Amino acid sequence: MIDRRLFRILSFLSAAMLSAALQGCGLIEAIAGPAAEGYLELCEVPALLVTKPEDTLDGICNERDCSLRDAVFMANECEGEQTIALPLGSYALTRTGTGENGAQTGDLDITDDLIITGENAYVSGELHDSVFHVLGEGTRVEMSGVTIQFGSGAGLKLDRGTTVRLVTSVVERNDGGGVSVATGANLEVIETTLRENIGGAIFNDGNTRLIRSTLSWNRLGDSPGGAAVTNWIGATVSLENVTVSGNTGVEGVPQGVFFNAGDITFMSSTVFDNVLPAINQSSDGLTSFENTIVINDVARDCVGGGVYASGGHNFFDDFNCGYEEGLADLIHFPTRDPGIGHLLDNGGPTFTHALLPGSPAIDAASDDCPATDQRGVSRPFGDACDIGAYEADFETVSEPILAATPEDTPTPTPTPTVTPTALAALSINFNADSYAVKVGECTTLRWQVENANEVSLEGQQVKSLDARQVCPQKTTSYKLLATSPGGEQEARVTIEVERLQPPAAPTKLAITGRVCTDTAYSVTLGWKDNAGNEDGYRVYREAQLIATLGKNATKYTDNPPGSGPYTYSVEAFNSAGASGHPSVQEVGCLY
User: Fold this and answer.
1) How does DSSP classify residue 406?
2) Which of 47, 172, 284, 302 makes a 20 to 30 Å CA pair with 431?
3) Cα–Cα distance for residue pair 268/313, rounded to 1 Å
């Protein structure tokens, strides 16, 4: 008898593949024997190794031939927790389709416990669907070393009752948000970057915990919410050693870096250099801060209602959040330098804002701080922990005390040594609203450059903070060049242009109705519309164009000038060309 797991796997193969593979009951019996046992042994291997980048679904995953989709499909069918090893490389999900939850098309649906261990592996949804979708009450997934990008409707989706642990990974450039967490779902993000997602980094209706991670350059559209996190009623978010930077939205829309209607807790985190209020909170919200920096590029840290609580030792722009000043809270005055550097690679797995010498945040946190900072540097380095996600690990140098020189031994005054001033490092953030468009569509390039004397886009001088709409006709790479006395730095954004293909040909062309009397002659044609990208349909009689119809047309009635017979044909068309044109014969009308 065929094992039920093998039967479910085989049931997903096409009828043609089954026919070719089985060729009758005799071969079914063969599969049910040693072959079946060998097949099911794959569920017992230490890890399902992905061997190719192509997005195929053969229903087979072995050491010689296994796509990522095959591996996920196989892991779903195997009982118990499975592991997938995903080597270095790019894996584009090209089997388009939405609405099914069996990992056959679109996103990779995960329905059983799974560990995915990547080696800097890039998985792209190609903006057709999400990238990963975790579903099934109690399903637990851990991913590491994976970049989740170009998803549509969130890169990673967690359904009710699921748990995902995301470690040393990246969630970037997804449209519709980076991660979506449903009611009752649990997300843990560790040493991971969520960046440049349109629609915000995280939508949370469950429980989310972020540790030693960075949320940067995420952007909202015209809808209310949080560019970094939207936290819904009854949901919880905690941040420990987390950097939140460069997140943006739309002016005049109720938005914030965080939009909170539940509970958010900040511990030893840095919210800096965003262009939205740090917290936009409803009356249901509760936000608490401890050992945290909240300094932004807007007048207010907080807007809206709810409750704000300070656990002390924070570094704020102001106290406009409505709570009383906590123990040893600091205020940043706009005329003073807060001593916080740009978002850079300062060591560790994620980018951080370094504390510069003289920053008031140094040695100003409480003893109740994490054992390390976001980078993994031990706390405290000096007399006390530092406020924020970064622990300054440089020594404070005291002014030297000069010994007195005896009056009878005059000492020549040395010529002072001039120490050159260190040049501030160039910083470029360059991204696009959409990285994949069709011919005739446009997208907007956006950039922010700091510490540059001159900035140019494709050789044309531009402002340091600006945007430009582009409408490429083919896949194009755009170069942004920044120059300063210390040198130059460039960044590139590539916009993939999907070439328009001629539409699919109609099928099942037939004469579905006819009138033949001494006073009238009409012929009604009907066909199946198979095209999804047509501009319209053309109808021909005897190879002469007689009608041009709009898209989605499936019938046409002709009044022929004579008695026939006639040959009719129909084709779909768009700007890229025309489809094939099936034909049908009308016998004529001899009344």
Assistant:
1) P
2) 302
3) 9
